[in-house]
Amino acid sequence: MRVFLDTNIIVGAFTTRGLCADLFRKILSAHTLVISKHILAETKDLLIRRFKVPEETVTEIIALLEKQEMAPLPPTLPQIVIRDVDDLPVVAEAIEAKAEYLVSGDKDIPSLVPLREIRIVTPREFWGVISKICPL
Questions:
Q1: Domain architecture of the chain: domains with CATH
Q2: How far is 23 from 124, CA to CA, in rounded Å?
C-alpha cells in the first residue's frame, strides 16, 4: 500500500514513543512510504527548531527519509476548499504520488470532504486499517 505521511506524523515518530512511531515502523516494513521535498524541509525545520534534535541526528533522519519514494509537487494545485492553504501542497503531493492514504494529525486535513483520489485519515484510523492487513 502507498502511504503519504504528513510532517506531524513523521516528527512524532522521531520525537515520541507511541502511535506515530509504531505507524512509521510498520509502514517502512510492509508498505511504501511516499514523502516529498516539502515534507522533508518541514520535518528538518521542526526537529531542529522546535524539538532541539541535534543536527547530526536530523541529518541521519533526513537521509533515511530521502531513501523513500519522493512525490513531486504537481504543476497545478487541486481546487480543494481547505481552511489552511499551507496544507494544500501536502494534499496535492499525496494525490500526485497516487498514494492510497494520506495520514495526518492536522485537524484540517482529515476533515476534508472525502476525495476520490485518496483516503485521508488520522493516525488512529490508519492504525485500524493496517492492523487488519498485517496484525502484530
A1: 2-133 (3.40.50.1010)
A2: 9
**Grid cell locating 79:** 481546487
* Per-residue pLDDT reduced to its tens digit, 27-38: 999 999 999 999
The verdict on pTM exceeding 0.85 is: yes
Q: Work out the angle at residue 113's Cα, subtended by the Cα atoms of residues 112 and 118, and round it to the nearest 5 degrees.
A: 85
Report pLDDT digits (tens) over 97-119. Answer: 999 999 998 877 766 656 677 89
Tally of CA atoms within 13 A in the half-sphere of 98 that contains its CB: 1
Beta-bridge partner residues of 70 = 35
What does the DSSP assignment read for 43-108? Answer: HHHHHHHTT---HHHHHHHHHHHHTSEEEPPPSS------S-GGGHHHHHHHHHTT-SEEE---TT
* Measured distance CA(80)–CA(118) in Å, rounded: 13
Contact between 27 and 33 under an 8 Å Cβ cutoff? The reply is yes
